[in-house]
């Protein structure tokens, strides 16, 4: 069977319904009687009940489809949406933030850029010994210091809170941190511990007072040994406290390598020799750092952020770094006796910095729960279990991933334990720890590693305190941590209150949500039940009419609608008319009574409330429409015959032919419309008469019979009312308007005369009008005409035929010429056109698109002056002259002069100017010197060129071109030995570039990579080379950048200074002499004389409340290290005071050699190269640098920036003895 055309079927049914409707109205109009059956059919009461319609049918009052969605269906809004708006307005469910169980850790909210704060706080909290010490502080002390109170409250919420994520805003606000600026996690931890150490120092509880020291403090010594006698200096026996070990990442692949380098010996010789107390002379010596004691929690801070002193910027070292899950630090401890010790540490936390940039990225922490040995990832609010592996569960796929290194990758299975390599295991069973404790982990983002000493060895002092200067006993006793320690009573009560408030909020939300859901369910049930009662199943069943709009609003509204409003259904007689059928529905009396009882309103419209008056009026209008359609159909047939030349025997009238054709094509309507107006409007002239047909295309007319004219006028009057101008009668015998005819005749005469004039001018100037080049002869006179005026003149002469008046004649020639002359010097403002020789040696104008003048013969000039009424003497007169140009054929370059004279030959040619004989200089043969002479033609004008004004104008135009912004230039990477010839033409969109052959352009495009760069006139060559570096991956030192034949060597020069315009073609060659490197090392500072420095935590509470200033920190570190006496004990009054500007945990790349010079101290540790154990409270690795003026700064040793302020000594050799004597009496904390 063929496929049924549903659209045609629908149209057929609709047409059938319309025909039935028209038949009923015709019967009513004829009989003046309305039967019950007529009402049923007019109001479509007999329409069947439909089900499953895609949309509600407006034509069927019994269709209730689409008011509600199908079963289990939803809508985007209203009562039937998936989640109601009223439920959404309640806000997020606080129950979603409910902690799953006390066994799962809680996260911390990110306030914008505070991921570094959250990661460090989680590391500290998960260190049980530390949080127990914080909880042990007296509440009087805690409440007296806001930071300590907020930290204790935050730890208490993490310990016993009910929320899945704790709000860190109060703590960050108390510290006065900028939540929009990401800072350095290591720096934050150092400063926070320093602040807590200072605050808790006032506690009477020993466990709280020494918690920072007990958990994180170890000691080491700077040991200097004489290479001659083997004795160590007295300073070597002094212990220096440390709280973290800062290890280099750059240049090392594993923790073991970096730690070995940290503890390695360095030789002091030459200028760095030291004075030996035993030998009493300057001798070679060795210097190293030796660990004396280790803390329970050993913190390795990996220096991934390095500082480039050349560019004053930071960058991140993204190389992979390996570290073991278990490390034995015993062999690395210095033993001042024969007893050997072991100190086995297990990895307990990893601080990770994700991202490749130093000033951005994201911090997360991987921390082990010491109770279950399960690892967790803390990513702000999200806390995810990693199983029993620090980097996630090890699977067969993960074993080969970038974050896990197998034993074979680092040297095999037989490596010793301290090397950190053994068989890797991915077992999730904690009992398998013995198989995986020496597993080597690898990460390119690990930033800080925390190792915890084995609990069974923590009470063994010899395990980690083998030195001669042990920690006091009262500190040792507090190292044993109570695993079952409870919260302080005050904090416990506060947390209970918080938990109760949170649970009450969750309960209240649940209650309100359930109430709202219950109300919505009741509304849905009400809608479903009433709509089930609405359809009337028989014609005899009583029914009421109701507004479809109100019914739809009621069925889809979350809240109860307004009272029933049926007023839009009523006609002026307060009944319902069949025209209201699309906006009303027929419902049963039972459904109407329920709606009326619930929502009131009305009026109630029963089935008997139909309007008989409206039905009779509609029947009469329908009959009238039928009459109009019948008449129109008849008239259209008559008019079609008229248009074909038939039926014009009787009296006729004129109508617009165009209007009549459009009337015939128009669809049949029920009544006249605006398209029936104005049948003769286009034929009426401004004088009220008949417009001649030749006046306009719209004036074409068509004769129609009188019967047609009367029908058209009748319809036009019904539309136009009193406006008779649109249907003014023009009988066939009416003559056209005489005034209009006169005007038309005059215009025709003018056109004819203009055509003759233009034809005459084209004949006189045939060559000039055709655009042919004028052959220029020496000795003849020519004139220069503005090219723009000549183009307009050609366009004017070219307009012929019907378009003869379409183009206006050009303005006066004299005014054009005067505008191109200098009024001050009465010279030409533009240079005359260049001349060249044709193929036969004739001289012609070298035509360019931007030529201002065109050369024309003298005869053409005089004819133009006569036609445009101009004085010929005011023109620009030109004569050709020949200059000498010598070309060295052997050298292929052009020279002028050099005292060479060409050979001349004289010949007689017919002068094309005036018919006389003239002498013409011809090209001679090569002479015996290999020199060929050419005659170079040029124009000499009267008036002459005003060079002063031209130079001024050209200079201004050129400078304007150089002042460009964000325009494109082309750079081509040439890989061969020689560039294509097209690139040797220094082009900035000039004629040289436009005339490059296609072959040359193709070679330029394929000889290497070609790029388009956006530059400005003030872009320097250095900046351009950086763009080329980034786009073509050619380092700056390897670039040989050219513009044309010239190499661009001055990196400080701008493109404008080198006359490089937009569209220029530059080319570069790669020498390959230097290795490729990171482009960030070359990024310049923003402004000369100003550098970016980092505010760090300046202005926050981390630098208040007992934390020493930068000067005190550097001084204490130097004094405790034994290299510099206290500031008050200076033995050299004229010693230079300097402030070393270094970021605390950034490796200084510019310092590739030890900073020991003849002015430095021989005993000073080589910490400048390592950058270890140094705290800078004034600078950190934050991402919000500020601008500081470098005026007054001087460059110290190895390029280090120094400033004349009182902060530290640079000691001379004469200060050595005083330094060592005073150092023994100094006992400062010396925080690293």
TrEMBL record:
Question: Keyword Cell division: yes or no?
Answer: no
Where in the cell does this protein reside?
Nucleus
Its Enzyme Commission number(s) read: 3.4.19.12
Which GO molecular function terms does the record list?
Answer: cysteine-type deubiquitinase activity; cysteine-type endopeptidase activity
Reaction(s) this enzyme catalyzes, per UniProt: Thiol-dependent hydrolysis of ester, thioester, amide, peptide and isopeptide bonds formed by the C-terminal Gly of ubiquitin (a 76-residue protein attached to proteins as an intracellular targeting signal)
Q: Where is the USP domain?
A: 106-454
Its cellular-component GO annotations read: cytosol; nucleus
What the record says about family reads: Belongs to the peptidase C19 family.
Claim: Glycoprotein is one of the keywords in the record: no
Which positions fall inside the DUSP domain? 518-611, 626-728, 756-880
- Could you mention a single GO BP entry for this protein? protein deubiquitination
Q: Which residues form the Ubiquitin-like domain?
A: 1011-1069
Q: Which UniProt keywords apply?
A: Hydrolase, Nucleus, Protease, Repeat, Thiol protease, Ubl conjugation pathway
Q: InterPro entries attached here?
A: DUSP-like_sf, Papain-like_cys_pep_sf, Pep_USP48, Pept_C19_DUSP, Peptidase_C19, Peptidase_C19_UCH, Ubiquitin-like_dom, Ubiquitin-like_domsf
Q: What class of enzyme is it?
A: hydrolase
Q: What is this protein called?
A: Ubiquitin carboxyl-terminal hydrolase 26
Q: Give the compositionally biased regions (Polar residues).
A: 1177-1187, 1223-1232
Its job:
Recognizes and hydrolyzes the peptide bond at the C-terminal Gly of ubiquitin. Involved in the processing of poly-ubiquitin precursors as well as that of ubiquitinated proteins. Deubiquitinates H2BK143ub1 of histone H2B.
Please give the residue ranges the record annotates as the region Disordered: 399-439, 980-1008, 1151-1232
Q: Which organism is it from?
A: Ceratodon purpureus
Q: Where is the composition biased (Basic and acidic residues)?
A: 1167-1176
């Amino acid at each position: 069977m063929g496929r049924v055309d549903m659209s045609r079927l629908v149209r057929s049914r609709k047409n059938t319904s319309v025909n039935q409707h028209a038949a009923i109205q015709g019967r009513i109009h004829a009989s003046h009687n309305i039967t019950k059956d007529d009402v049923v059919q007019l109001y479509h009461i007999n329409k069947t009940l439909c089900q499953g319609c895609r949309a509600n049918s407006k034509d069927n009052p019994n269709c209730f489809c689409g008011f509600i969605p199908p079963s289990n269906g939803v809508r985007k809004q209203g009562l039937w949406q998936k989640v109601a708006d009223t439920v959404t307005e309640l806000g997020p469910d606080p129950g979603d933030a409910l902690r799953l169980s006390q066994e799962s850790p809680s996260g911390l909210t990110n306030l914008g850029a505070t991921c570094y704060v959250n990661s460090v706080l989680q590391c500290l909290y998960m260190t049980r010994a530390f949080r127990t010490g914080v909880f042990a502080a007296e509440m009087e002390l805690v409440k007296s210091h806001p930071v300590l109170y907020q930290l204790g409250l935050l730890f208490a919420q993490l310990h016993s809170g009910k929320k899945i994520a704790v709000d860190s805003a109060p703590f960050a606000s108390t510290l006065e941190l900028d939540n929009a600026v990401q800072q350095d996690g290591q720096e934050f931890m150092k400063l926070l511990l320093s602040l807590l150490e200072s605050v808790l120092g006032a506690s009477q509880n020993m466990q709280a007072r020494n918690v920072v020291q007990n958990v994180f403090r170890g000691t080491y010594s700077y040991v200097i040994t004489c290479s001659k006698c083997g004795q160590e200096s007295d300073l070597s026996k002094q212990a220096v406290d440390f709280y973290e070990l800062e290890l280099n990442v750059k240049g090392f692949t594993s923790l073991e390598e970096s730690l070995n380098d940290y503890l390695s010996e360095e030789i002091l010789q030459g200028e760095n020799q030291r004075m030996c107390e035993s030998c009493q002379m300057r001798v070679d010596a060795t210097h190293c750092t030796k660990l004396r004691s280790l803390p329970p929690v050993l913190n390795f801070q990996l220096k991934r952020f390095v500082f480039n002193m050349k560019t004053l910027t930071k960058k991140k070292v993204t190389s992979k770094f390996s570290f073991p899950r278990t490390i034995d630090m015993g062999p690395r401890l210095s033993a001042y006796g024969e007893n050997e010790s072991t100190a086995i540490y297990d990895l307990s936390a990893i601080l990770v910095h994700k991202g490749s940039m130093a000033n951005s990225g994201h911090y997360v922490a991987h921390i082990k729960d010491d109770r279950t040995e399960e690892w967790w990832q803390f990513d702000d609010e999200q806390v995810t279990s990693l199983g029993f592996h620090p980097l996630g569960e090890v699977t067969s796929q993960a074993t080969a991933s970038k974050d896990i290194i197998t034993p074979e990758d680092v040297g095999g299975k037989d490596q010793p334990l301290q090397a950190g390599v053994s068989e890797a295991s991915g077992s999730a069973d904690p009992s398998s720890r013995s198989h995986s404790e020496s597993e080597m982990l690898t990460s390119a983002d690990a930033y800080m590693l925390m190792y915890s000493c084995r609990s069974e060895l923590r009470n063994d002092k010899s395990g980690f305190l083998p030195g001669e200067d042990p920690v006091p006993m009262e500190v040792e006793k507090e190292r044993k941590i109570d695993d079952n320690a409870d919260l302080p009573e005050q904090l416990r009560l506060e947390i209970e209150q918080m938990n109760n408030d949170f649970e009450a909020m969750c309960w209240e939300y649940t209650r309100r949500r359930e109430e709202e859901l219950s109300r919505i369910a009741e509304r849905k049930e009400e809608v479903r039940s009433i709509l089930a009662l609405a359809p009337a199943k028989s014609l005899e069943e009583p029914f009421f009419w109701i507004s479809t709009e109100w019914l739809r609003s009621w069925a889809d509204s979350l809240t109860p609608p307004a009272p029933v409003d049926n007023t839009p259904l009523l006609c002026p007689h307060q009944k319902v008319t069949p025209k209201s059928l699309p906006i009303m529905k027929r419902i049963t009396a039972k459904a109407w009574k329920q709606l009326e009882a619930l929502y009131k309103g009305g009026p109630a419209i029963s089935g008997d409330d139909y309007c008989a008056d409206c039905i009779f009026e509609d029947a009469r209008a329908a009959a009238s429409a039928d009459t109009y359609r019948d008449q129109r159909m008849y008239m259209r047939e008559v008019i079609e015959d008229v248009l074909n030349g038939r039926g014009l025997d009787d009296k006729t009238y004129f109508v617009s032919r165009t209007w009549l054709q459009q009337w015939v094509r128009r669809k049949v309507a029920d009544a006249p419309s605006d398209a029936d107006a104005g049948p003769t409007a286009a034929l009426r002239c401004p004088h009220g008469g008949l417009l001649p047909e030749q006046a306009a295309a719209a004036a074409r007319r068509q004769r129609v019979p009188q019967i047609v004219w009367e029908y058209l006028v009748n319809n036009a009057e019904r539309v136009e009312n009193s406006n008779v101008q649109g249907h003014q009668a023009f009988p066939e015998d009416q003559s056209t308007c005489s005034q209009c005819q006169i005007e038309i005749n005059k215009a025709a005469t003018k056109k004819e005369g203009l055509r003759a004039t233009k034809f005459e001018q084209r004949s006189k100037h045939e060559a000039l009008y055709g655009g042919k080049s004028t052959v220029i002869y020496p000795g003849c006179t020519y004139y220069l005409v503005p090219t723009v005026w000549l183009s307009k003149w050609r366009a004017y002469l070219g307009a012929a035929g019907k378009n003869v008046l379409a183009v206006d004649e050009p303005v006066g020639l004299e005014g054009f010429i005067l505008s191109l002359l200098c009024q001050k010097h009465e010279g030409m403002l533009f240079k005359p056109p260049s001349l060249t020789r044709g193929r036969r040696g004739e001289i012609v104008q070298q035509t360019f698109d931007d030529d201002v003048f065109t050369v024309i013969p003298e005869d053409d000039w005089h004819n133009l002056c006569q036609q445009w009424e101009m004085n010929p003497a005011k023109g620009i007169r030109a004569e050709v002259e020949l200059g000498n140009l010598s070309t060295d054929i052997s050298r292929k370059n052009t020279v002028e002069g050099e005292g060479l004279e060409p050979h001349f030959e004289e010949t007689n040619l017919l002068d094309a100017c005036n018919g006389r004989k003239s002498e013409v200089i011809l090209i001679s043969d090569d002479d015996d010197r290999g020199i060929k002479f050419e005659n170079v033609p040029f124009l000499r004008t009267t008036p002459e060129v005003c060079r002063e004004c031209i130079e001024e104008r050209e200079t201004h135009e050129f400078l304007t071109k150089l002042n460009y912004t964000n325009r494109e230039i082309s750079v081509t990477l040439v890989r061969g030995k020689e560039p294509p010839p097209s690139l040797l033409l220094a082009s900035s969109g000039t004629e040289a570039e436009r005339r490059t052959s296609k072959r040359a352009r193709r070679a330029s495009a394929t000889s290497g990579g070609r790029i388009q760069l956006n530059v400005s006139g003030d872009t320097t060559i250095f900046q351009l080379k950086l763009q080329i570096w980034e786009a073509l991956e050619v380092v700056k030192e390897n670039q040989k950048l050219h513009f044309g034949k010239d190499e661009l060597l001055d990196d400080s020069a701008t493109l404008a200074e080198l006359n490089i315009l937009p569209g220029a073609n530059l080319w570069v060659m790669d020498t390959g002499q230097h290795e490729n490197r990171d482009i960030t090392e070359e990024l310049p500072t923003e402004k000369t004389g100003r550098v970016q420095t980092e505010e760090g935590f300046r202005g926050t509470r981390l630098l208040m409340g007992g934390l020493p200033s930068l000067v005190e920190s550097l001084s204490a570190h130097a004094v405790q290290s034994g290299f510099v006496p206290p500031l008050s004990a200076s033995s050299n009054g004229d010693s230079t005071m300097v402030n070393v500007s270094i970021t605390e945990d950034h490796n200084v790349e510019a310092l590739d050699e030890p900073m020991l010079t003849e002015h430095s101290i021989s005993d000073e540790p080589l910490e400048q190269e390592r950058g270890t154990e140094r705290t800078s409270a004034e600078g950190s690795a934050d991402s919000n640098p500020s601008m500081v003026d470098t005026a007054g700064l001087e460059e110290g040793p190895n390029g280090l920036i120094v400033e004349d302020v009182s902060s530290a000594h640079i000691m001379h050799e004469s200060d050595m003895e005083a330094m060592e004597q005073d150092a023994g009496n100094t006992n400062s904390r010396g925080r690293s």
